[in-house]
Amino acid sequence: MNHPIHRISAVEQVGVYVLRLQFEDGLSRDIDFEAILEGELFGPLRDPSVFAQVQLDSEVHTIAWPSGADFDPGQAHDWPEHEQAFRVAAENGPADAVATPVSLGKVAMLNRPPQ
Predict the structure, then answer these.
(1) Fewer CB atoms near the end CB (10 Å): N or C, the chain?
(2) Is 107 a member of any domain?
(3) Which domain holds residue 57?
């Protein structure tokens, strides 16, 4: 199976919890992260000043925060296909997050603290 590798080339904050992501293939997507900012890893990003610390990690071509939270660029690229799973995991807490087939780049699971 051949899966495309997506890379984020630029990030701009365009709302309190909304990021405009530019991908290397030319796609631009605005994502509102507010509904998924729950749990140990993403919960602290509910503080707007912490969320605003988002940076482009040029080594792995994704968005990341100083706290260690990051986001899989492939899932961001195909956000409409993944948004519902993230919302359900955020609403139901860490137990569901572990059971949800979600990969978050360096972290591996939504709401799981970095190892």
Answers:
(1) N
(2) no
(3) 8-99
Q: What's at 66, amino acid-wise?
A: P
Instruction: With respect to residue 109, please indicate whether it lies within any of the assigned structural domains.
Output: no
**What would the two tokens of residue 63 be?**
């968005």
In-domain check, residue 90? yes
The pLDDT tens digits of the residues spanning 75-95 come to 999 988 888 888 888 887 654
pTM of the model: 0.75
Question: What CATH number is given to the structural domain containing 73?
Answer: 3.30.2020.10
- Give residue 33's Cα distance to chain centre: 8
Token readout for 21 is: 């992501």
Of the chain, the end-to-end C-alpha distance in Å amounts to: 29
The count of domains in the chain is 1
Nearest CA to 69 out of 92, 86, 88, 91 is that of 86
